[in-house]
Amino acid sequence: xxxxxxxxxxxxxxxxxxxxxxxxxxxxxxxxxxxxxxxxxxxxxxxxxxxxxxxxxxxxxxxxxxxxxxxxxxxxxxxxxxxxxxxxxxxxxxxxxxxxxxxxxxxxxxxxxxxxxxxxxxxxxxxxxxxxxxxxxxxxxxxxxxxxxxxxxxxxxxxxxxxxxxxxxxxxxxxxxxxxxxxxxxxxxxxxxxxxxxxxxxxxxxxxxxxxxxxxxxxxxxxxxxxxxxxxxxxxxxxxxxxxxxxxxxx
Length: 251
Hints:
With 251 residues, this protein is an alpha/beta fold. It has a single domain, classed as Aldolase class I (TIM Barrel), CATH 3.20.20.70.
């Protein structure tokens, strides 16, 4: 059995790590370079860095910040936000990123997924999906959760896999920042229907939430932010807890 992955997420705005609830009410959570170094030392399996205003501001990701973070860590590192061209990916990989996360640009032009996978390898391409539960349907949103798209979660995830995405990062907007636990049913359905890895995001509040999403939903990785940023959960302690619960993790 492949080890489950624990992935801290650094949402970046104006060069600082921020965290909110349901994608709004953002609060400062610290220096991203320092946090990245700490998580790497604590035993995180990977990091995700999302420049959350790059798309809405119509600019590229912060390459200089990516370079600084890459110098401080020795674990895989995914960067997202403002990526819409092969040149953007080339710049990020050159700056030290191992993977890129695409969201809004892929919804607007789905063939981008295949173009990037063909040029850089599907293992480099993470399709991030932000979805909100509206009238019983999981609708996909773009631009940092601000704009509703034409897609529904499961059809878009399946199409993304077919086009060449190497992983799906699903954030349940209804759970984001609530600390009520990961969304169980949607994550389970994604994990069962897809052949590529699924990363669950949104709702982590205590260690049991990680155990539950791995055991009950079958996802490959769990991503969280505020519980790590504010020291509520230490990654080493979490991994020990998961191991005690019979979940395979790298310690």
